[in-house]
Amino acid sequence: MMAVAGIARLVCSGLMLWLSTSAGQGVAPEPPLLPRVVTAQEVRALARAHAGELHYCHRQQLRRRPVATPDKVDVVVQLGDSGHVRRVEVVGENPQALTVCIRMFVKQWRFPGDAAPQPVRFPLLFAR
Questions:
Q1: Ramachandran area for residue 34 (φ above 0: left; ψ -120 to 50: alpha; else beta)
Q2: pLDDT band at residue 9, thresholds of 50, 70 and 90?
Q3: 61 FRET partner, CA 20 to 30 A, in 7, 30, 42, 99?
Q4: Do 44 and 24 belong together in one domain?
Q5: 34 within a domain of the structure (yes/no)
């Protein structure tokens, strides 16, 4: 064991541990937490919780142009800190009014607060 400026290094069976030697007690450091990825179940739960808003957007577009209204829309959400939505992209050739409406509502969603900043892609399927 070698002590340097209040820190001790212990090499045992190829494993190196850094221990604090302040106050005479050694404490192993906390392992770094890996960023948590949002699960498909969490995305489904959010989409279900906000289904009324999403169906509102789809119904409004159906009233405007039934033939041009898609039944499937792909959404990419860029998460920021604490589960806040930083950016929403509706992928593909979709009517502008539908895109704007979906963006407006999805931007207000709140993903789990412990999720790491990340892109989340998911489809929205609508029934006519």
A1: beta
A2: very low
A3: 42
A4: no
A5: no
Cβ neighbours for 38, distance < 8 A, ≥ 6 positions apart: 79, 111, 112, 115, 118, 120
Structural domain boundaries, residue 97: 40-125
60/105 Cα distance (integer angstroms): 14
Q: What is the pTM of this model?
A: 0.71
| pLDDT tens-digit readout, 41-63 | 999 999 999 999 999 999 999 99
Half-sphere exposure of 108 (CA within 13 A, CB side): 8
- Report the distance separating Cα 7 and Cα 51, nearest Å: 55
The residue ranges of DSSP E strands in 27-93, in sequence order, are 72-79, 85-91
Contact 58, 66 (CB under 8 A): no
The reply to whether 18 and 63 lie within a common domain is no
| Whether 51 and 18 share a structural domain | no
Domain containing residue 101: CATH number: 3.30.1150
Q: Please, which residues bridge with residue 9 across strands? A: 2, 18
